[in-house]
Structure formats: C-alpha cells, structure tokens
Amino acid sequence: MRRVIRYLFLMILIAVMAVFWSGTATATLIGNTTTTSPVESIGPANGQMVGVAHPVTVRFATAVADRAKAERSIDIRTTQPLTGTFAWTNDREAVWTPTGFLPANARITVGVGNARTEFDTNAGVYGDGDMSAHTFTLTVGGIPRTMPASYGKPKYPTPSGTFPVLEKARNVVFDSRTIGIPLSSPEGYVINGEFAERLTWGGVYIHSAPWSVEEQGNTNVSHGCLNLSPENAEWVYNVINVGDPVTLHW
Are β-strands 205-208 and 226-228 bridged in parallel, bridged antiparallel, or unpaired? Predict the structure, then answer.
C-alpha cells in the first residue's frame, strides 16, 4: 500500500511540474484566475527594442470564451503595473494599448500565467506631422529635426491622430488598387517606394517621394501618405523604430 501511495504521489508531482514548465499546458493565471486556453504567443518578442507607443499582443491557442477574465490575467508592468485598454482582433487575440505612452528606456514585463516575455523601450522617438505647415519633425532624445513634407491632397486626405509605426520596409511597392483606385484611373499608380514606415493598415506610410520634392514644404499632393525627400526619408528610416508614435495634425 505504501508503494502505491508513493507511486501516486510521484505521478501527481510529475504532472504538476509538467504543467508548470510546459508552454502549451493550461495556465494558472495571475490574480487566481484560470483559463482553459493556453498562450500561443506574446508580442513584442522577448528582448525586442520598440517605441513607446507599441501595443502588447497576446494570442491564445484556442478561442477565449471569457474575455474579461483573460484580460485580468494579463499583467503588464515595469516596476509597477501599467494602465491601458484592450481590444480583440478575433476570439483568440487581445491587443493592449497603453494609456498615453510607455515609459522610455524601460524594461517592460508581460506575464500571462506561466508565459512571460520582457522587452525594452527606446529613449523616446516622437514624430509630428504638421499638415498645415507642410513639415515633419522627428524628435529623438529631446532633440528635434524638422524637414519639408507633403501630405494627402484634398481628395485623399491624410488622417489626423497619433499612430504607432507598425512596420518598416527598405523597399515597398505602392499600388493604388490597395486603396481603391484602379490602375485605369488618372489617379492610378504602381510605384517602387523606398525607406517606408507603415502608419495604418489602410495604407498610410512615411516614405521617400523624389517625385514631389518641389511640393514638399508648400503643397499637399499625395494620396494620403507622408512624402519626404530621399535624403530625409533615409534618415528617418534609420532612426525611427516600430512602435514610435507619429502624430498627424492640422
């Protein structure tokens, strides 16, 4: 009988330890809440450097029935918990956006049950697009650099608001069909672009635009993107990071 009891105890201990170390096991979540959906991924990735407006994305392996409970299980902090809001892109993926901005030069820890990641924020890089003055200013560590720019023409206005840089591309093809303009239209185009930073999934970019250099600084002529000279666009590309906030305004 003692051997049976010892054997059962050993099996229970092994099972508990397997749950503790497994990345795909059912997790016991922070705040004494649980979910039957394990965590598939957390972004930003462990060790990544991002801008201060970067959201946190938690993707669960299966559909989440109780979203409120899942949100309570997600702990995002530096030395203290950080505040923000959740939005769900689908029944498996929660996106947390910070209130204001994340602290600069900080180590951010994200915990969801046994799943953990840590990422760092940069020194603080902020973009400001003044569509009335036709300028773009990038402030890095408190030092601003202002350059001529051109924004969306009245028919295709650039949106106002604050947008985090979503991704960067050294080379990108701009196709008017992706924003609803057929190639047969006088406004249609397919252009090989350079030094591009995506601001919206709808197709608004900061990018090099050698074709509009004469208008930059005085006239808005684009189809919604932020046009810069090749030299300025290259400098911005080398300095700006995914997650850096860009505010566009009149």
Answer: parallel
How many angstroms separate the Cα of 245 from the Cα of each of 27, 32, 240? 34, 35, 9
Which fold is adopted by the domain 39-121? Immunoglobulin-like (2.60.40)
Beta strand ranges found along the chain (DSSP E): 28-29, 33-34, 39-43, 49-50, 56-60, 74-77, 84-88, 93-98, 107-112, 115-121, 125-130, 135-140, 143-148, 161-164, 167-175, 190-198, 205-208, 226-228, 245-249
Q: In what order do the strands lie in the sheet with 84-88?
A: 39-43, 56-60, 93-98, 84-88
Furthest CA-CA distance within the chain: 90
Catalytic residue ranges:
207, 225
State the pLDDT at residue 36.
Answer: 53
Indicate if the pLDDT at residue 72 is higher than 60. yes
The answer to whether the CB of 226 falls within 8 A of the CB of 152 is no
CATH of domain 125-248: 2.40.440.10
Contact 39, 56 (CB under 8 A): no
Domain-wise residue ranges, the chain: 39-121, 125-248
Residues whose CB falls within 8 Å of the CB of residue 148, separated by 6 or more in sequence, listed in order: 134, 135, 136, 216, 217, 218, 228, 229, 232
Residue 2 has pLDDT above 60, yes or no: no
Is the CB of residue 190 less than 8 Å from the CB of residue 176? yes
To the question of pTM greater than 0.85 for the whole model, the response is: no
C-alpha to C-alpha distance for 60 and 36, rounded to whole angstroms: 10
